[in-house]
Amino acid sequence: MLRLQTFIYTFSLLSVAARADVKARNCSEVREACVAKGFSFTHVPLQEISGETLRVCPQGNTCCTQEMEDKFGQQSKQDLENLVDEMSHLLRSTFVSRHKRFDDAMLLVAQRLEGPFNIESVMEPIDVKISEAIMNMQDNSAEVSYRVFQGCGQPKPAGMTRSTRGVSDVFNARFRPYSPEERPTTAAGTSLDRLVIDIKEKLKMSKKFWSNLPDVLCVEERVTAGNTSDDDCWNGHTRGRYFPEVQKDGLTNQLNNPEVGVDITRPDTLIRQQIMALRVMTNKLRNAYNGNDIYFQDSSDEGSGSGSGSGCTDVCPTDADAEDLTTEAPVVEADRGGPVDGSELPSAPPAALLLTLALSVLALSRQWR
C-alpha cells in the first residue's frame, strides 16, 4: 500500500514538473523523490524531455520516460493485486467465525418459529377455541347447576327475575369451526410461515459466504484460469504457480503468511466495531431462542483480544454453544425452619457462661431463704 502511494506521488511530481516554468528544465526533484523512497533513478532523465509517445505521463515536456511508465505500471499492478489478496485474507480471517455464529443463531430462532412457538398457529384458532368453550359450558350448565345445588343447597329466590335468553344467531355464526380452505389469505410473502422458509433458505445460502469467498474467486472460470493453467497464473510476484503454504483461517495464523502484513497488536477500529455489532446481535438471537430477555448481558461469548475476534482456534461452537447463554437461577439459602446442626451454633464465650451460672445460683439461694 505504501509503495502504491509512492507511485502516485511520483506521477504527481511528474505532472507538476510538466506544468512548471519553462526555465525549470532539470529533473532533480523527481530524482530526489525516487532516492528518498528507495527506488532507482537510472531511468529518470537529467532534464525534461518530450512526452509525445507517453501514455500515462503528460505528453508535454516531462521528466518521465517510457521505461519509467512500464516499470511503475507493472509495480502498481503487482501492489494492487497484493492489496486485493490481502483484503480477501482479512475478510476470510476476520468475519468467518462471527458470521457463522450469527447465522447459526438466526437459524435456531427460525426453527423455533416453525414449531409450537409459531404465533400464527397459536392465535389463528383462538376464536374457535373460545366458541367451543362457551358452547361446552352452555351444554353442561344444567348438570353443573344440579351438582352445585346438591352440594350447597337451593338458593333463595331473588326479588326480581329475568327471562332466560338463548344464544344469538349472530354469536353462533361468528364462532363456528371453519375448514383450512377458509383461512384468511395475506399478501404474497407476508405469512410468517413463508417468511421463515424464505429466511432459512437465504441464511443457508449465505452461511459460508465469507469462508468460501476466496475459494470462489480462485475457481471462478470467468476470473481465473483452470487447474491445468497454473503456470500462467499470477502468484503475487510473477507468472507461475503459488508455492508458499496456504495458511489457516484466523488473524493469528496470518503471522506466517507472506502475502499479508498484519499487525495483530493494533486491530482495526472499524473491524472491531463490526465484530462487536455481530456479537451483540448474536447474543440477542440466542437469548430469544432460550426464552430470555434479549437485552440480557452475558459474558460467556467474550473472546480474546487477539485473533479473529471469535475467541476460538480451530473449531468454533455452533448450535451447542447456545446453551452457554442460559442463565441459572441464583442459589437460594437453606430453609431456616428446618433442623440446624449443633455444630453450626455459635459458641458462647466462657466468661459470659460463668457469669450467667453465678447469677442463677445467687437468685436461687435468695429464694430458698
From TrEMBL:
One of its GO terms (cellular component) is plasma membrane. InterPro entries: Glypican. Residues 300-320 are annotated as: Disordered. Residues 1-20 form the signal peptide. Keywords: Cell membrane, Glycoprotein, GPI-anchor, Heparan sulfate, Lipoprotein, Membrane, Proteoglycan, Signal. One of its GO terms (biological process) is regulation of protein localization to membrane. It comes from the Eukaryota. Cell surface proteoglycan. This is Glypican 6b. It comes from Takifugu rubripes (Japanese pufferfish). The lineage of its organism: Eukaryota, Metazoa, Chordata, Craniata, Vertebrata. The gene is LOC101077158.
